[in-house]
Inverse folding.
């Protein structure tokens, strides 16, 4: 039991930072990384889906509820990322507080969260890509543009069964190659794509606001259909739980700490700045979109582009499609980036095979873990439908956020004198509000999502007790810790 609860000290964690990792990220780049991850499928795909199936025009309230929870959690991430400027995100923070077993559980959970998150966003990317091909008079065979086993209808009305979503798999593999090539190059491209994405989003909000029909907001909260999560109050909560998935960008950004130039200053600015900008844009887009298109009609692969077409600006829909494609690409990039850093950190601690954490001698990137993850995520994106991926990511994310809030309270109690470049105000109340917010959002998720998470964690525990526990570097250094 002592070895299972063994934890790393703050000084041990900071001292294990790999000096070979290049310091290339400033505050602006970290904000851009956060926006790149947060503003993606949520604004271009999930906004329409959740409005049509769960919350109606009240999706605005869903985004507000998710943002409040993220605000509490984001403050906790800002403190911990400045205090512990190394890779690993929630895994590292849990290792410093609740011990090795809990760190393994959350690390294993994060692997699932980022993998399924990347796959879900790639499926959304595929929808916009196929629409762009259609505008150009081209098209992919329908059987190669949807999840395996999904029923699709051909142009002649014939129904067939899809084989795999090849565009979704292809974009994951392409970004994987880019990330293996180097962090600095990947970040430079990300900054350019984020600027383009924000331009398109602001243009949509500014143009669409003049054509909003207030009658489309009636009723603002549609009556519940008799099924939990299908409109009404439960639909708003279910919608908040689903769109919460879109905010995991600042979680992924916390993995930038080891590559930040001045992490004590840059990480809080990056995390909170990205979260604030994304929240304002999410709420504005949701309000304009549901004001342009009756919410039952928004369950389409490209709802924002549909909103532009409704007001008669067919030419502008092309720019929306391109902006969405670019925006979703940045989201995949940041999630794949963060996941490889967590895997490499776990390998450096001995909880994963050493080869997983091996850095490329010239590029300085964890290339083996990046390639392995790319192949796995590409496979998931090719075969799984988006809705199943979304909810699985949501429950894993909320679980991780609860542990981050707990870590802040715990470290304040056991290491009160450690210098904290950024401090969460009103501890323990703010972290406790973060925990309660996450628990309330968890209540909106389906039982099937919980069962999938439990199954994944059970697999992880088998791996821990058969391999990781016996190879832990902390356990070898301090066998009775």
């Amino acid at each position: 039991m002592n070895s299972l609860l063994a934890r790393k000290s703050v000084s041990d964690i900071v001292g294990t930072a790999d000096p070979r990792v290049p310091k290339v990220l400033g505050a602006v780049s970290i904000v851009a990384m956060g926006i790149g991850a947060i503003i993606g499928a949520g604004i271009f795909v999930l906004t329409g889906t959740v409005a049509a199936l769960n919350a109606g025009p009240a999706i605005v309230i869903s985004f507000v509820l998710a943002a409040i929870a993220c605000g509490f959690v984001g403050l906790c991430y800002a403190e911990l990322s400045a205090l512990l400027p190394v890779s690993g995100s929630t895994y590292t923070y849990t290792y410093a507080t609740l011990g090795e077993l809990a760190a393994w559980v959350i690390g294993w959970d994060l692997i699932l969260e980022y993998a399924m998150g990347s796959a879900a966003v790639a499926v959304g990317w595929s929808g916009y890509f196929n629409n762009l091909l259609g505008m150009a008079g081209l098209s992919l065979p329908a059987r190669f543009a949807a999840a395996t086993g999904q029923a699709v209808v051909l142009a002649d009305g014939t129904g067939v069964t899809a084989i795999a979503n090849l565009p979704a798999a292809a974009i994951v593999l392409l970004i994987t190659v880019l990330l293996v090539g180097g962090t600095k190059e990947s970040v430079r491209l990300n900054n350019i794509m984020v600027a383009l994405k924000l331009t398109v989003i602001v243009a949509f909000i500014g143009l669409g606001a003049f054509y909003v029909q207030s009658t489309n907001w009636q009723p603002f909260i549609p009556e519940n259909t008799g099924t939990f999560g299908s409109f009404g109050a439960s639909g708003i909560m279910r919608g908040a739980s689903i769109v919460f998935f879109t905010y995991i960008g600042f979680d992924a950004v916390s993995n930038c700490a080891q590559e930040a130039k001045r992490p004590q200053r840059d990480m809080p600015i990056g995390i909170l700045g990205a979260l604030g900008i994304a929240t304002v844009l999410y709420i504005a887009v949701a309000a304009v979109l549901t004001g342009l298109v009756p919410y039952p009609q928004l369950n389409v692969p490209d709802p924002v582009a549909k909103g532009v077409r409704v007001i008669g600006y067919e030419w502008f829909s092309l720019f929306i499609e391109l902006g969405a494609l670019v925006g979703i690409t940045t989201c995949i990039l940041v999630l794949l980036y963060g996941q490889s850093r967590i895997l490499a950190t776990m390998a450096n601690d001995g909880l994963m095979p050493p080869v997983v954490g091996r850095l490329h001698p010239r590029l300085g990137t964890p290339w083996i873990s990046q390639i392995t993850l790319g192949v796995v995520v590409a496979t998931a994106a090719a075969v799984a439908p988006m809705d199943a991926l979304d909810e699985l990511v949501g429950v894993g994310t909320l679980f991780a956020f609860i542990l981050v809030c707990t870590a802040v309270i715990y470290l304040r109690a056991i290491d009160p004198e450690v210098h904290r470049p950024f401090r969460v105000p009103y501890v323990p109340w703010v972290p406790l509000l973060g925990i309660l917010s996450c628990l309330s959002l968890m209540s909106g998720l389906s039982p099937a999502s919980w069962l999938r998470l439990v199954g994944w964690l059970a697999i992880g525990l088998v791996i821990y007790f058969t391999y990781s526990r016996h190879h832990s570097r902390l356990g070898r250094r301090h066998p009775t810790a």
